[in-house]
Design brief:
94 residues, 4 helices, 83% helix
Length: 94
C-alpha cells in the first residue's frame, strides 16, 4: 500500500524540522547537535506515526530500529566529514 502524497509531505515536514533543530543545537555544540539529530530522526519522528490510523506500535517497532541505525550512521558520517578541507572550502565559498 503506497503511503500517498499527504504522508510523504508529513515526513518531509518532520525531516525539515529535524534538520533545523539539529542545526540550531549543533551551533552550540556539534556533538550535542548529532545527538539531537539521532534522537529526533531515530526516535521522535517514528513515534509520531503511532497516532496515524493504520500504523501504531507495530509500525514503530518494525521501522524504528532501522531508522535509528540509519540516523546514527548519517550523523557519524556528517561528523567525520565536518573537518574535510575540500568541503570547508565549498561551504565557505573559498
Amino acid at each position: 500500500m503506497p503511503l500517498g502524497l499527504a504522508l510523504h509531505l508529513l515526513v518531509a515536514l518532520g525531516m525539515m524540522l529535524a534538520a533545523y533543530a539539529t542545526g540550531v543545537v549543533a551551533k552550540l555544540n556539534k556533538f550535542a547537535g548529532c545527538a539531537a539529530g539521532v534522537i529526533i530522526n531515530g526516535v521522535v519522528l517514528p513515534v509520531i506515526f503511532m497516532v496515524i490510523p493504520g500504523f501504531g506500535w507495530p509500525f514503530v517497532i518494525a521501522v524504528g530500529p532501522s531508522i535509528f541505525v540509519a540516523a546514527t550512521l548519517n550523523m557519524v558520517v556528517a561528523l567525520g566529514l565536518h573537518n574535510v578541507s575540500a568541503l570547508k572550502k565549498m561551504r565557505h565559498g573559498r
